[in-house]
Amino acid sequence: MIKQTAIAGGLPSVIDKTMENGFCCVYHLFHHVRILMLLVPNHREDLCASTSHHLVAHLLEQWYPQVLDIDCGGYFTHPTCDRQINPGEDKRLLSQAQHLWTMSEAASFLPEERNYSAYARHGFAFLKKHMWDDECGGFFHIRSREGGYTECNGWRQEKRAGGNAFALLALARFYRLTQDPSALDLAKKAFQWLEAHAFDPVDGGYFPFLTREGVVIGKSRPDRCQADDRQEYGYKDLNSSIHLLEAYTELYRVWKDRTLKAQLTSLLGLIRDTMVTAQGYLRLFFTQDWAPVSFRDAPSKTRSQHHALNHVSFGHDCQTAFLLLEASYTLGLVNDARTLLTAQRLLEHSIVNGWDQYCGGFFDGGYYQDDSSHCTIVRSTKAWWSQADALNALLLFSHIFPSDRCYRELYEKQWELVDASLTEHLLGNRCENGSDHEPDNNTAPDSRMWEFTNHTSRVLMNCIALMGDELQRNTGVLERKHTLQELVNHWKRM
Prior knowledge:
mainly alpha; 3-stranded antiparallel sheet; two-stranded antiparallel ribbon; 48% helix
């Protein structure tokens, strides 16, 4: 275990706080980390060019069209580190939805590359025909390669609120690209199914685990005995909640429905006001009535066994900081200083407690042991999706608060890690964890359950758009730049 207080020079006992905007200045914590170059114009252009090269050559061209299943439809899930395809694999809803989202984003961002739109339509057809349950509604969590029943991982015909959220997100984004009314209709059906079956009208929030018929799976149900994620049954969770927030935000862009607005507003408040702790990090799991699941007072062996349920996930905190600001802005909330402050606290806590002072990057997991006020690192690996989402948050906050130099400098330091460790050997999405702590990841599969191209593609596109030349002629880049700049300006006025 790593104590984050054990940094060179020691952790200052007092952290300067600017009370007007809640920003915790952590720049002085890093005086033993080399001073990064300021973003002078030439350096800015070089960084933007490098990011563009990674997006196209090391990500999109490395994955597509290789992962398209031409024979059965949809996308293959788990290419090996050298991009070999296993044709016998089943198809998970997460992979189908996330590849569809990525292709929809890429088609809009790079409109001159017409193949991406075709790749998106290819994925939509499989999602609609095989992943959606025409009989009971909702999306299956997993299907066979051909789109039928499978016993894989014991999921059988179960459904997940989080998986349905990813599908809804992809459908709404695909609709924005194509204006295909069948995509919006299916997105509306998914929303209505989630509200009818996963939503808790008593205590709020959403139940993550459901049967094919939409019955909530609790700890006492025999349905749980097969699935490999059964440890999480009976709880409500952060991950499903933030991806529902993300999906509902995207859907609200194209469908100004009153019920959708109310549920999105409720989700925003729930995550911001209930899931964020006083220390500034997010709890991961809760009981039905929102008591946090904690094993803090349990023996160390028990804590370790239940690590997935109870730890500090710096990646989720950085990701949520961005999603909260995006949701509030999309809802049109004015003077929402509470959400901005909460998002800042999430990022600040991650910087102070989760940043690797020696190698850069954010660790996977921390823990507040016993009655300690210090966060101890209990997982020193670095999941690539966490690094991507941290990069995205640092970029956004460096533009909202341009006078706070630490955001920009940490962004550049984080980019160095992503560039050198997570994208080496021309493998743009690399593997589940970084190679500085786990060298074996250089030969690990490039994609696992949660590891697809959506995290990386979003941050690369955002970086290119926000840092790109104002004279950029690419209409897709300009459109994204305008959208992001409006988001930034909204929060800068706060």
